Amino acid sequence: MPDHPHHDHKHDHSHAHDRGGHYHGHAPASFDRAFLIGITLNTGFTRSMERYRDIKFYKKAWSISSNINTSRKFSLSVSFNDGDEIRFIADPFLGKSRESSATVTARPSSRLQSVLRVSTSRFLDRRTGADLTEFSVKILRSTTTYQFTPRLLVRNIWELNAGLGSRQTTFENILVTYRVNSGTVFFVGYDDRFKHGDAINPQLFQDTAYQRTNRALFTKLQYLFRSGGAS
Prior knowledge:
Number of strands: 11
Order of helices and strands: EEEEEEEEEEHE
Strand content: over 45%
Helix content: under 10%
Radius of gyration: 22 Å
């Protein structure tokens, strides 16, 4: 199954945050607008306080996103978030977090769907007055699904995780699904994963060439048992 990206410190600002077990208020504001059928724009601003390691951090953040879904064959969504965030380390501090994403969905036919998503996450240390990059992660993920028949489906996932502080990995996962009946499904899959050599063992691999870390061929049978009884 796919990896989870590193440095995913997103929070739900609809609630107050306190890593020490207490809750505090916040001041959110948002603006939502639908311009045309299938086109929306959303913006938001949040002021909040979060406690981590018994330290109070006062944060401000804003966001903007848009969705364009005017055609059955194509849709686009983009988002950008910028604001204060905590660096969750032994000596925490408040820095600047910037996250962006763009997702393109193509449906050239009723059988084929392809989704391409690009996301970035960057954290800046501003304690010295300069913007020093703590990490800058970029993730490119592609998911393609083809429905051969009502019973037979093939799905392919490819992902690249790169940048400063990232996993430095790439993987591909292919899954064939065959539905025998409403309660029985048979799966056959292939998974192949790679990682930068110097991120695995810098003494053994002294360059960034990808090295295979895992390769697997797997099968799975899913069967739904039904038990009948008198009503």
